[in-house]
Specification:
Helices cover about 25% and strands about 25% of the residues. It is of the alpha+beta class and about 230 residues long. The protein has 3 domains: about 30 residues, no CATH class; about 60 residues, no CATH class; about 110 residues, Sandwich (Immunoglobulin-like). A hairpin with a 2-residue loop joins strand 3 and strand 4. Helix 1 packs across helix 3. The longest helix has 18 residues. The radius of gyration is 24 Å and the shape is elongated. It starts with a strand and ends with a helix.
């Protein structure tokens, strides 16, 4: 909350004793002091650790390698190889591609790979019941060499939530694409616990990653709703 100070505080600025005095657009005010959150989830910590490793690797590249990454970044947007359409720098491209290479167990690439593009996965059927929690693709590419499926899921959400895809994060290890049902129950429950009737909805994002180049496909979205068995409903 902001408070307009009296003339006695005309030159006051900074923070002390839980309040902050500041000035914006010529007006001075006092507000409760804000404190940044210091708690990090394990997911955030692991992502930060990978990017720290990549940042150090970027610093050790030669000038010729940096120029090569800068050159590769100029054409990355046109091919939409990262699942995005924003302009990026050479260091951005190095970080984004190598993140997925490292995530999938590979070694950091010091030279930019030849980009080939990755098609988005097919639609998926997700079964969420007492007996099964599975993820099944309708089809897969004819060639799956170097291709991995990344499945991201949200924590259980209430029926009143209609869109929580942004809360979906990776569960389990990268999967080899198959058309048979993938059992994701253990990976999901290890991260979020069991889904219940009180919070029955789970939001998903999933995409492919080329482990040789680090390229990411566009993201597919899905939602699954928990269904109780008839014996429990009776």
């Amino acid at each position: 909350m902001k408070y307009i100070p009296s003339i006695a505080f005309e030159e006051m600025s900074g923070s002390a004793k839980g309040v902050t005095a500041a000035k914006t657009r010529g007006r001075k005010y006092i507000r409760n002091r804000g404190y940044g959150g210091s708690v990090r989830t394990s997911d955030q910590a692991s992502v930060k650790a990978v990017f720290k490793q990549l940042s150090q690797a970027w610093q050790s590249l030669t000038n010729a390698q940096i120029l090569a990454w800068n050159s590769a970044a100029q054409s990355a947007e046109a091919k939409s190889v990262l699942g995005t359409k924003t302009k990026i720098t050479g260091s951005n491209l190095f970080m984004r591609l190598n993140y997925w290479v490292v995530y999938c167990g590979g070694t950091i690439k010091q030279d930019p790979p030849a980009l080939v593009g990755v098609e988005a996965p097919a639609a998926a059927t997700i079964t969420l019941t007492d007996e099964a929690f599975t993820f099944k693709l309708a089809s897969i590419p004819s060639v799956i060499t170097n291709l991995k499926l990344i499945i991201c899921a949200s924590a259980p959400q209430s029926n009143g939530i209609s869109r929580a895809y942004s809360k979906a994060t990776e569960i389990g290890d990268p999967e080899t694409p198959v058309t048979t049902a993938i059992d994701i129950s253990d990976d999901y429950e290890a991260k979020y616990g069991a889904v219940s009737a009180g919070n029955p909805k789970v939001f998903f994002k999933y995409f492919y990653v080329n482990t040789a180049t680090g390229e990411k496909s566009g993201e597919m979205l899905a939602v699954a709703t928990y269904t109780e068995s008839e014996s429990e409903e009776d």
